[in-house]
Amino acid sequence: MANMFQGEMDPEIAALLGADAPAAAASSGPVPDYSALFNEKNEADDDKAEEAELDLNAGGFPEVTKRFEDKPNPAFADPNYYKAALSGEGDIAQRVHNILQKYVGTKDPKDKGVYRQQVTTAFWDFLANVARKAPGKLPDYKKYLLRFFMLHPTFLNTEHRELFAKTVVNNELNQPVYYLDEWFKAVGTGVIRNSQTDEAKVSKSNVSAKLQALLDKANGKKDGARSLLKAKDEERINLERVLRDRIKDLTDHYPLDGLPDVNSCYTDTQKKIFSEVHELLKNLMKNDHDLDLYLKDFYQAEADVKTLEGKIADEGGGAEVDMGAVDTEFNTVRQMAKMTIGRQGNHFPILTSEYFRCAPNDLAYRENVISILAKIESIDPEAFCRSYKNRLNRIVPYVVLVPSYGDYGVCWEPFDRFNRATSRARLALPMYPKNLFIAILSAVGDLRWQVAKEKASYYWMEEGLTGNYYQWFQKMKLKGDLKDTFIDDYITWMTKESEATQKLDKEVRGIFWRHIPFSQTIKEKLRGRSYTYQDLYQRDLNRAMSDGY
Fold first, then answer.
1. Strand bridging mode 426-430 / 410-413
2. What is the pLDDT of residue 484?
């Protein structure tokens, strides 16, 4: 059995535990089940959130066939909605009500500006209370309060109310696109880890906190190894299926004329199968080698997790935290909202027709967002791909729908710090932008930049997408933020250049053509529209022939 655990223990874990890898891996005796201690399962919570499962072999987004419910939700027409939304939240709810009355009732522009700021602060404090209840069973009124920041339906006109009342409630497409009530529920129940923030350094004397951080890291490594194992197993199944089909073709013979008891020789077509079979066998051998390595990684990570869980139990439980996961995430989401709006934008949080200017196609409800993500992927097929161990994995990011009047989507983090291999990125999108397609493109452009920068690491100013773009930026002596300029160019690349409208600098076009390639269908279309694209297409062929691509 010892051979199962030939993967290497993480050096940090080995150092902290004072054990070498083989000793830790081969720990004697059964390990107690600490799943209850770490909230991995809560029998009392039947309504626990579920994470959209990561499938590295998924080919694309599902087709959106249902955009709205047939019947409007009656909650939006309930005259008691406002009262029900505020009820049970204590003094902060009363404060929101009092300030809101002053804001709505005043005619003086100066006073209105003061009350507007007070409403904004009080409403966010009020929402923090509501968010803490998200991991449980939220009534519809509080659910939509969190989901849309809809405090009072009559703040919207009839047309807008009907639009929100018919949005699809549940995640029927099983994609990682979350409304805020769902997001806080998933974070609060431990389904999704808190978003990264600039955390304070853990004290060297806080052994429990160190152990918990290492446990998170080991769990990330274990999850990554498991996802890669599943992908490799699917790859093997496909290779074996093709091999069986080719062998069947190879063994099909017909009797010779005049010699009914003797079968014919191999045909020219069958003889070609020999080389195909040889290539398939080579690929199967490589697949088996990779599968063996991933198995060792998985078993070692699993052993590390069990060892650390035991250590944490010996220390008396998990790491101490200053506030609950939902409180931490709520503060993070508030920062996300500010980033989607920008410094000069409208930071008033409550949904009202006074500021709501979205056409139905620009409202970021879940089905709209999934349709646009699919459109982006059809133009930029590697938009949601990340390379790991020579394999390009399609990893759809978490998308958090933030009810704000912003116009910019942001990439909050390109991957989980504990699992760079197969973890999802996190995008935050404003729900009420002027142009939803542009808002989502800005988030995907941000994601593209951050992933490329992390991949190049210390050489991000010299190599790859970021290196080439940075050198062009410097050469042109441009001012302003480098990443913002890149995102603007990415939006132009996706909206104009994909339609053969040449708007980018020639050098930037060349960088994007190579590092952010269009789908083959679009490349074929473009090559016939202009000599510029024909030349870029020919360079692709030249690189492929010289194996330098």
1. antiparallel
2. 96
